[in-house]
Amino acid sequence: MAASDHLSICVTCGTQYDIPYDNRPSTCRMCLEPRQFVPPSGHSWTSLEQLKATHKNEFKQDENDGRIWSIFSTPQVAIGQRAIFIQTYTHLEWAREFQCPVYLAYEDQEWLNRDDQENRRVFFKDETQNILPDVNMVKVGGHFPGSSVLHWNKNIFTGDSIGISQSGLSRSHHSKDHQVFFFHYAFPNFVPLGPTAMHTMWKRLRVWEFTAVYSLFFTTTVRGDNVKRLMLDSMQRQARHQENFGHPLLQEQLSA
Ligand SMILES: [Zn+2]
Predict the structure, then answer these.
(1) Ligand 1 center from residue 244 Cα (angstroms)
(2) pLDDT digit string (tens) for 67-121?
(3) What is the CATH number of the domain that holds 91?
(4) Is residue 166 located within the same domain as residue 227?
(5) Domain limits at 119?
(6) How far does the centroid of ligand 1 lie from the alpha carbon of residue 121, in Å?
(7) 60 belongs to a structural domain
(8) Reported pTM
């Protein structure tokens, strides 16, 4: 049994705390935060030990790029987030042992809920952090000050920094007016970001080429040669609907 099997996990958001399940807290500080929510039934807790009895992890290879694997729990746990495994190059020892660092934005340290006893965390302060050749973290902010995406091989992996809409996922019936991406401070509580935050995101993303965006959930991926254009269109549409008609974000063009 792993050492973390008995630790408390919030059922609603999936955060694991350095607190044994037997002494589980009365409230989850992440769910009390304005970016999350507490369900009508109140706070509730589980542990890895309990989840292992009722859930399993599935590994699904990406249909377009076999080097990308989604890892997620079934049935869904918490908000249904996925992990993505990227095979950047063949390194069997690395793959077997996962002896890899964990890159985190310096700005978001206050949100960590586990101790780093093996000293694996690497906090990066710059807007961009190179990890491996052609693999870069890009800090876009917005949802959290340190919210970041990973860029690799014309792919953007957004984590929870950028949302993908329903119409973005069904683009066979797409019109040019449909919103593909959305940019929120609080996703479950629907607090959208304003044009200046989106403009900062765009200025950090526009230097990267990408033709696919992988979001937080297993089913949320958008591909196509025009994905970068759709990203800018979505930002500008959101700003226009906030009636920010004079904002410099609306002057941005794809080639800028
Ligand atoms: Zn929680």
Answers:
(1) 34
(2) 999 999 999 999 999 999 888 765 555 545 677 888 999 999 999 999 988 888 9
(3) 3.60.15
(4) yes
(5) 66-71+84-251
(6) 22
(7) no
(8) 0.90
